[in-house]
Fold NADH-quinone oxidoreductase subunit I.
Amino acid sequence: MSILNIMCSLVSQIRSIWLTFINIFSKRETIMYPEKSVYLPPRYRGRIILSRNLNGDERCVACNLCAVACPVGCISLKKSVSKTKKWYPEFFRINFSRCIFCGLCEEACPTAAIQLIPDFELSEYKRQDLVYEKEDLLISGPGKYPDYDFYKFSGVEIEGKKKGDLSNESRPIDVKTLLP
């Protein structure tokens, strides 16, 4: 072992002791969770919920866009039609053990039914318990967008009335007129 190696080792050890000493009195980065609450940024994406309209109806129209947009395929649902000819999910299932909380399902949802809330406490002992059904996901209120109603924009076609005939509905766009 040369003298140069001994000097390098000695300088390295002195540097390590110095770094340890200057960090002894600095502020701790460790948060004592759950005794202290964790700060979450305003745009934090946590647990997924399904919201309802102000009248209590489910917002989800089972269009399947969320399942298609999901990069890991953790969303599954089945469309059904109600007596009022509105679509709704017969079942809606999210596997949170596969979800990566990317938020693409929320962006793809045309009805603002899927929303990500800042809840991150999703731990379970069994992996099967991380599969949430529609009843687990539905909340009682409209969530982030209380004034949004999908059917005000898309309209509802009933007997004797076409889409866009009411004053609070906009007429459907003929996509063929948009072609160059």
About this structure: The helical segments are 3-23, 65-69, 104-108, 134-137, 150-154. The CA atoms of residues 74 and 95 lie 5 Å apart.
